[in-house]
Amino acid sequence: MASYYSAFFGSEEPHFLESCSLCSKHLGPNSDIFMYRGDTAFCSQECREEQIESDEAKERSWKLSARSLRKKSSEAAKDSAAGKTVRTGTLVVA
After folding, report:
1. Domain boundaries defined on the chain
2. How many Å is the maximal CA-CA distance in the chain?
3. What pLDDT sits at residue 16?
């Protein structure tokens, strides 16, 4: 079955406006569509907000992880400067 949007875009591939990106609910031609980051469609404000909250939580987690890595790197550099042996978790294989 051809989608409503394929008539406009000439493609049989699913279009990003066909279903909610979170709950996969079908988005009809006369339904409200809530957009996020330009190309992510949602069926409701609630689904959109849930995705935003999820993305913000991931971003906070990444920032905390990056801070802890920088802190470990800084501590290793201090230990190395003090003449202590420092081992890292990096393995290079040729």
Report:
1. 14-65
2. 70
3. 76
